[in-house]
Amino acid sequence: MTSPSHTIDVPPPDAHQLTIGFIGLGNMGSGMTRNLQAAGFPLVVNDIRRESADALLAGGAQWADTPAAVAAASDVVITMLPTPRHVDAVVNGSTGILAGIADGGTWIDMSTSVPEVANQVRATTAHRALHILDAPVSGMSVGAANGMLQIFVGGDAADVARLRPVLEAMGDAERILHVGGHGAGYAVKLMINQLWFSHLVATAEVLSIGVKAGVDLGVLRESLIASPANSNFIQSDVLSILEHGDYDEGFAIALACKDLGLSIDLARSVGVPAEVSGLVEQIYRRARAQYGDLAGEMTPVKLYEDLIGVELRLADRGEAVA
Ligand code: NAD
Fold it and tell me: Quick check: 83 pLDDT over 50?
């Protein structure tokens, strides 16, 4: 026992008292903010689409006209924006976060992005003692809506521990991972997407070849599942197409192409050849050109369906290898 008896222990600040500023109320941010609100966090929100905040404001959130005003009115500012360019504008613009955030304040970027903007902010604001985390997510808009996102956090351990209750309001507590220092969250997220998109293209290709060769789609899929070539994609994620013809418009292919481009940039910057990733990126870009920016992230499967003239659909879910 080292504390003198007359000292009063000051309890750590209750994270639930924190006012959260949130900028970017799109497919992901809308669900994430609903869950923060449901967990009891006071919210201050902003988006270039004012109407995206209607339900939150009805639930008691405050609107702020600029990112600077969001930052000035909150303890923690979260960004959930499409690309690094948007993050840069929202942080560094004349009415950006840096123009409003208090010294010692906290910014968490949950966008799928790259470290450059945050690195530059840390370099130019060292005297302001800001706490900055990168915390991109996986789990699609469904995971955002039901508060079950996986979150990959880069930054200081003390900040991650302090802000865990905020992250847990949006994510699955078991899958909120502190993956390393600043920038590690961005890198992990880009590698997850790169591998998932690669699974998607490879799966579309083998299903198309197998079906064209005369094998029943359900039998082919069950055979793959029973083999060393099984994957989470074949077992689970591809079913949205095979069962429902749903190519996941909750994540636009324009953003998927953005992620693939960032992933290739990362590979280039660390000097690792990325032949497979490069090919997957080209196939994604072809699908985007063909079906439009807003088509779902799984639309490259449609390229193969159009090529073979067959929609890959399971007629009967219960099919199994005889
Ligand atoms: P989205 O395009 O649906 O939403 C982005 C929001 O940001 C929009 O509401 C837009 O109006 C707003 N915005 C853009 N510029 C702004 C500005 N200057 N000021 C204020 N608001 C601005 O995108 P999303 O699908 O929600 O994705 C957001 C991020 O999450 C992206 O980096 C994406 O790669 C990543 N992500 C998406 C998914 C998914 O399934 N949708 C999954 C994981 C990660």
Answer: yes
